[in-house]
Amino acid sequence: MPGNVQAVERAAAILQAIAGSGGRMGVTELAGAVGLPKTTTHGLLRTLLGVGFVAQDLDSGRYTLGPGLLGLGSHRPDANELRSRASNWTDALASRSGCAVRLGTLTDGPAQGATPGDVLVVHHVFRPDDSAQELEVGRRLPAHATALGKVLLACLPGAPPIPAQAVLARLTRATCTDPAALTTELRAVRHRGWAGQREEHTAGVAGLAAPVHGPGGLVVCSLGLTGPVESLFTTAGEPRPALLGMLTDSAAAVTRELSHR
Known about the structure:
It contains eight helices and eight strands. By secondary structure, it is an alpha+beta fold. The strands form two sheets. The chain has a six-stranded antiparallel sheet with strand order 5-4-3-8-7-6, sandwiched between helices. A two-stranded antiparallel sheet has the order 1-2.
């Protein structure tokens, strides 16, 4: 009976090491983790990168699990699972913050077309007041003009820049339509771990969002607050600290919930 294929075993070990780290790993770190020479590890990473099983961060050069793994097995939870596992936290967040809460997933990406793609709202909790509201589940939002979308674009494996030819529709006077400026903003979002938008999608409306990670460490959705500008941001244009803390704590709680699948 034929023995195991050594290259496959080594590639699997690299993927397991990255997944186990819950973050990003460099070549030297990975070589040490799997007990291989650095040159061998680098060659395997090049192959895994080519098939999309790993991605490389443009700023740090470190490696993460890639988008090619998302369709394999149960690596990424579907919309129904996201809703069921996040509902306790999203309900509590809406009650505490006084804002509407949404979960969103990216429907497309900048590498696949001339636009940055859309965000699909997979869960929506009304703000806890008596105002007229419409359920937004199933609604598509432009990724470049919403906090939900900016988080998802910023956390794509490898954080690719927005292509220079990308078409960024102007929705309000505040919408960013410059691909280079949006790329710079997305790098800042990736670094700090949250995104904001003020009147970029709808006049008078603001949003904050934070990433939710799946079991393998990849971002599977974004969790966001939305409401009037003055309710989410101070007069100096900064996110209200209490709301930002509630949001990031809730995103971390949903991440922990998904890790216990």
